[in-house]
Amino acid sequence: MGIRTGQQYLDKLNSMHPHVVINGEVVSEKIAEHPMFRNNARTYAKLFDMQHDPKYQEALTYTSPTTGDLVNASFLVPRTIEDLGRRRRAISTWAEFSHGFLGRSGDYMNSSLTALSTAKKFFAKADPVFGERIERYYEYARENDLLATHTLIPPQVNRSVPGSEQLGGQLAARVTEEREDGVIINGARMLATIAPIADELLVFPSTLLRGTPEDAPYSYAFAVPNDTPGMRYLCRSSLYNGGSVHDEPLASRFEEMDAVVVFEDVFVPNERVFMLGRPDLCNAWYAETGAGALMTHQVVTRTVAKSTFFLGLASELADAIGIDGFQHIQEDIAELIVDVEIGKAFIRAAEVDAELSGDGVMLPHWTTLNAARNWYPKIAQRFPQIIRKFSASGLMALPGEADVNSDAGADIEKYLQAKTLTGAERVRLFKLAFDASISGFSGRESLYEYFFFGDPVRMAGALVNSYDFAPARARIREFLARED
Ligand SMILES: Cc1cc2nc3c(=O)[nH]c(=O)nc-3n(C[C@H](O)[C@H](O)[C@H](O)COP(=O)(O)OP(=O)(O)OC[C@H]3O[C@@H](n4cnc5c(N)ncnc54)[C@H](O)[C@@H]3O)c2cc1C
Q1: Among residues 276, 262, 286, 229, which one has the least CA distance to residue 155?
Q2: Is residue 250 part of a domain?
Q3: Could you tell me which residue ranges the HpaB/PvcC/4-BUDH C-terminal domain spans (predicted)?
Q4: Domain for residue 428, yes or no?
Q5: 451 CA to middle of ligand 1, Å?
Q6: Nearest 5°: phi and psi at 35?
């Protein structure tokens, strides 16, 4: 089949029967028509349609090596640095469409599956059958153009003990039975973004597991369709308030629902189980398979689009109300320029210094990407601050679309005009600033970017513990030894 159209994606979504709990309601059919999910599903449908648009098709697709159909380029196994560039162009084509506000566009999980499908040596440490299964699953996802999300962390009940010790080990999702034909899963995982509108859920390892026998039931990787019997999604309230694209320009399009995942006697057939009972390999899942590198390459590409959005917005606001010449405004705009350029440089450096893995995959340079993913969660917190600082009371003197088109329109034209904009144009721009800096949607975006790859505190620790300090320290010792 290969690339799907938006309509094919929506039709499949509407034919599935997940158990989605939201606002006291259980939604189990026609998910794509539900007011809480409709808009975001349609935004995702546009991404699928872009693959068929002659303007984007060359960037977004390549020819499947097995079927000859066109498939998404994020499934391309990179063998050369040019292949990495090919992948990046596809990723940035989607990221520019959403200005980086879609964190779960299909290319994110596709990147993970692409690397995993090649990591034969890694899977052979447990059983080569796992490597064969994940390659088949990757091909299934590629040829059916599936949209997947993932869920990684145990419930946040008591972080001073591992998941295996919470409530006697009864809370975190775990293998409760190993059968001839598969496994049974019970318990919960903390969060899965876009779960209600995804085709598939990847339940992969994340938090560090100890190598003790008690951790064995929590050491697994598997994938299930999002309407698998026994699986329930508990959604938060929506951050989209039902307004028009004029009044909620970001939330009305890009609000991605987050959901807790509950498993009750969920059966996972063997062919969808990719790791079992090996805490050591679960802990090495992202580092040793190359999945971490290809996923981070996707994320850094997406976040450059987002940084560019904030640079453009800040510059438009400053120009509109005539503050662009003030020094502290220019200092903040300079900060945004630097962020965009650093992001682009990270990608370029990671590609130029890419290396072939033991499985013959060209992986972008990990230390560079590791630095990028430690940097972005912090600098992204500045973006809404800068927009708030520039906009000030302009974020409150802000009637809506209905007012612009009412008798109040004359007042809006007169009193809410800007140096370079009519009243109606200014309202539209500041509505965007509002949604990017103080709306509930924007709050979630900041939280999302901060915790995207996990807790930044522990990520910093992981960076320090894995970094090769030898060359830098040798230079200090050499300098201390100099007598001249
Ligand atoms: C909007 C959003 C969407 C998300 N979407 C997904 C998704 O699609 N899939 C997915 O798998 N996950 C998702 N996550 C979860 C994300 O991976 C986690 O937020 C992240 O890993 C941090 O874990 P936590 O939220 O449980 O925080 P916790 O680990 O509970 O941390 C809470 C606080 O306690 C501190 N802390 C806790 N334990 C320790 C420790 N051992 N040492 C030092 N400090 C500690 C942390 O520094 C932090 O300040 C999402 C999160 C957000 C906010």
Answers
A1: 262
A2: no
A3: 282-480
A4: yes
A5: 6
A6: -55, -25
4, part of any domain: no
Report yes or no on 271 lying in a domain: no
- Could you report the predicted ipTM of this complex, rounded to two decimals? 0.98
Q: What is the CATH number of the domain that holds 293?
A: 1.20.140.10
What is the reported pTM? 0.97
Q: What local confidence, expressed as pLDDT, does residue 214 receive?
A: 82
Closest CA to 304 of 333, 347, 335: 347
Position 126 scores a pLDDT of 97
Q: 256: Cβ below 6 Å to ligand 1?
A: no
Q: Is 151 in the pocket of ligand 1 (CB under 6 A)?
A: yes
Give the three-state DSSP class for 469.
Answer: coil
Range of the domain at 370: 286-474
Q: Ligand 1: does its nearest atom lie under 6 Å from the Cβ of 236?
A: no
Residue in 44, 12, 91, 3 with CA at minimum distance from that of residue 299? 91
Q: How many residues does the chain have?
A: 484
Q: What number does the ligand 1 atom closest to the CA of 192 have?
A: 8
Compute the Cα dihedral for 180, 182, 186, 187 and give only its sign: positive
180: CB partners within 8 A, 6+ apart: none
State which amino acid sits at residue 115. A
Query: Percentage of the chain surpassing pLDDT 90?
Result: 94
CA distance 349 to 86: 16
Q: Is residue 355 helix, strand or coil?
A: strand
> Does residue 207 have a pLDDT over 80?
no
Asked if 408 and 399 touch (Cβ cutoff 8 Å), the reply is yes
